């Protein structure tokens, strides 16, 4: 094993385990990306903390270390997911303090504390004293102990918070709270949809193109051959329709934030809990990464297109034109761009990407390269273009202007791969990596 699968375009932990993106924000001239971090184990065991990256431009990143650790009774079993918002020159962070009491409990209806905890920082790294602003007794009586993942935003002169929850009769829902000052919070309603699973995690509410959207990561959806294929899902509501953010093997718990120039950006965890496929980097001491930051735009039918932020185009350093029927050797990482007008097939070592009869699929033909992944499908109809961002151990595939996305981890044996094109011509841009410096633990 070697470091050959260390990503060059995606944020990953220096060691240990990463899951959800947290506290995404632009504050004090920097982008801040916090994340669920288990520094002591690549399998997610041990302390669950927040790790922190910051960047002036989303291309040069500094890891500043573990900035929130479980160290008070109200977060003793984990500093769980949450969000950040600027007010009066400080960055205000809200997260879930998870508490598992000792004893014979089911940890669903009893034995678990879910505290919303508030801290502030003036530099993104050093945190103030922790204050509990909501605890189990503040949630509706019909909720189980699974209530978490506060996302806070400002709307009509008030602060609003949304929390994900599971009711005592196993239905996913979200809870709303509001506050004039980020300190005192009052219950402001609840929302759920029938037959949408037993738990909604990591909710988010935002506006794109004048339209309000709710995003959730529901657990317990019915799996179908072309929809909700993963153990857990995540998506947004366009009207009453639930639309998955990503149809690949590895995507969960996304969060959004707004840049100073008004772009709504989404970052997800390029991973999921409780999967039966694996990531061989765990044997080298780390596991999981985040997705690229994706810029969101509203399409005329209400769907949301996702595309890699334009900053990544500045990493292009060479161009290879590849014609239909050709085979090219290309070093990772690369950015493949192609217009399409009909069915096509793109082969890469151990994986086939195929559009046929309106169905797009990603299929691993070599089980080692997929590390247990087999096939994922998306019913996309016709498709005007495809863009593939291939990093050292992942593929992010953007279809039809970003209307559909598929993300997967991918473990090729070498750092150069062979691409075959059938029914499609493509431009392949080789990419420089991002600059990542590690300044903490
Ligand atoms: C989603 C999630 C969140 C929770 C966090 C714990 O992946 O389960 O609901 O806050 O991970 O790490």
From TrEMBL:
Pfam families: Glyco_hydro_32C, Glyco_hydro_32N
Similarity annotation: Belongs to the glycosyl hydrolase 32 family.
Name of the top EC class for this enzyme: hydrolase
Segments forming domain Glycosyl hydrolase family 32 C-terminal: 385-419
Organism (species): Candidatus Ornithomonoglobus merdipullorum
Pathway: Glycan biosynthesis; sucrose metabolism
Gene Ontology CC terms: cytoplasm
UniProt keyword list: Carbohydrate metabolism, Cytoplasm, Glycosidase, Hydrolase
Protein role: Enables the bacterium to metabolize sucrose as a sole carbon source.
Catalyzed chemical reaction(s): Hydrolysis of terminal non-reducing beta-D-fructofuranoside residues in beta-D-fructofuranosides
Its EC number(s): 3.2.1.26
CDD domains: GH32_ScrB-like
Every Glycosyl hydrolase family 32 N-terminal domain range: 10-308
Signal peptide (residue range): none
Entry annotated with the keyword Cytoplasm: yes
PANTHER family: BETA-FRUCTOSIDASE
Any GO BP: carbohydrate metabolic process
Matches recorded under PROSITE patterns: GLYCOSYL_HYDROL_F32
This protein's record includes keyword Cytoplasm: yes
Record GO terms (molecular function): beta-fructofuranosidase activity
Protein name: Sucrose-6-phosphate hydrolase
InterPro entries: ConA-like_dom_sf, GH32_Enzymes, Glyco_hydro_32, Glyco_hydro_32_AS, Glyco_hydro_32_C, Glyco_hydro_32_N, Glyco_hydro_beta-prop_sf, Suc6P_hydrolase
Subcellular location(s) of the protein: Cytoplasm
């Amino acid at each position: 094993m070697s470091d050959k699968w260390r990503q060059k375009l995606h944020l990953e932990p220096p060691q240990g385990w990463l899951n959800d993106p947290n506290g995404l924000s632009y504050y004090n001239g920097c982008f801040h990306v916090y994340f669920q971090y288990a520094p002591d184990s690549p399998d997610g065991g041990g302390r669950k903390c927040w790790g922190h990256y910051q960047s002036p431009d989303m291309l040069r990143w500094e890891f500043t270390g573990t900035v929130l650790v479980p160290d008070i009774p109200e977060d003793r079993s984990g500093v769980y997911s949450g969000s950040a918002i600027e007010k009066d020159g400080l960055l205000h962070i809200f997260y879930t303090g998870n508490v598992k009491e000792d004893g014979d409990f089911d940890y669903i209806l009893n034995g678990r504390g879910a505290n919303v905890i508030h801290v502030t920082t003036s530099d993104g790294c050093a945190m103030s004293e922790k204050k509990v602003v909501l605890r189990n007794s503040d949630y509706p009586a019909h909720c189980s102990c699974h209530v978490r993942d506060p996302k806070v935003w400002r709307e009509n002169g008030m602060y609003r918070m949304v929390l994900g929850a599971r009711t005592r009769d196993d239905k996913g829902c979200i809870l709303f709270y509001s506050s004039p000052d980020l300190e005192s919070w009052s219950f402001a309603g609840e929302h759920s949809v029938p037959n949408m699973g037993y738990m909604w995690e990591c909710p988010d509410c935002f506006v794109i193109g004048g339209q309000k959207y709710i995003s959730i990561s529901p657990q317990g959806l019915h799996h179908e051959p072309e929809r909700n294929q993963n153990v857990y899902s995540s998506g947004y509501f366009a009207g009453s329709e639930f639309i998955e953010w990503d149809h690949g093997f590895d995507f969960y718990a996304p969060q959004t934030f707004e840049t100073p120039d008004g772009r709504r950006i989404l970052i997800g965890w390029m991973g999921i809990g409780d999967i039966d496929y694996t990531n061989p980097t765990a044997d080298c001491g780390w596991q999981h990464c985040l997705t690229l930051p994706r810029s969101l735009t509203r399409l005329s039918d209400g769907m949301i297109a996702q595309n890699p932020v334009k900053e990544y185009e500045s990493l292009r350093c060479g161009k290879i034109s590849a014609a239909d029927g050709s085979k090219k050797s290309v070093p990772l990482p690369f950015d493949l761009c192609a217009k399409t007008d009909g069915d096509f097939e793109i082969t890469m070592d151990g994986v086939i990407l195929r559009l046929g009869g309106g169905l797009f699929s990603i299929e691993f033909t070599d089980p080692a390269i997929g590390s247990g992944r087999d096939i994922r499908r998306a019913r996309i109809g016709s498709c005007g273009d495809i863009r593939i961002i291939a990093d050292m151990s992942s593929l992010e595939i953007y279809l039809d202007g970003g209307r559909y996305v598929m993300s997967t981890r991918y473990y090729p044996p070498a750092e150069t791969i062979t691409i075959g094109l059938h029914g499609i011509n493509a431009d392949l841009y080789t990419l420089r990596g991002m600059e990542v410096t590690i300044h903490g633990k």
